Amino acid sequence: MRKVDRYPVEGPNALWQVYSTVSRWKSVRNFIFIQLARYCPVLPLKNWIYRRVLGMKVGEHTAFALMVMVDVFFPERITVGNNTIIGYNTTILTHEYLIKEYRLGNVDIGSHVMIGANTTILPGVNIGDHAVIAAGSIVHKDVPAYTFVGGNPIREIKRSETAAKGEMDESVRNFLNE
Length: 178
Fold this sequence. Notes:
This protein is an alpha/beta fold and 178 residues long.
C-alpha cells in the first residue's frame, strides 16, 4: 500500500479545487522552472533548479534525463539519492486529484537507482538503493533495494542474491549493459 494522506472534498471534483490546496503563483512558478529543467542539457544547472528553486532533495551525481516531469504542485516532496539516473520522459507524481478526494504522498528514490525511460512513479512510494526499474513501468508500490522490477503495474523480475555484500547481481548488470 502506498503511503498517502487523503483529504476529502465537498462539491465539484478535487481538481476544480486545486487552488485551495496550492497557490496559483507557486503552480505557475514551478511549471516555468520545471519546463526549463526538462529541456536543460546541463546536469548541474538542472539539479540546481530542482534543489534551490523547487525544494527537492537531490543527491550528488544524480542525472535527470531530457523531458523528466516532476510534480508541479508539490515537488518538494521528492527525494532522490546519490548517483541515480532517471530516464527520459519519466513522470514523478506526489499528488492525485480524484472526484471526492485528493491524495498527497512523498516519493523517496534511493541511491544508485536506475529508472528506465517513460516510467511513471505514483505518490507515496519508496524505491530502495540499487533498484532497477524497467522502461515503461508504472511504479505503484514500494520497490525494495537491489530489486529489478518492470511492467504495468510493476512486478518483481529479479532480486539480487548478493544484496548483503553490496554487489550487483549478474542479471541486473546484463540488463544495464544491453
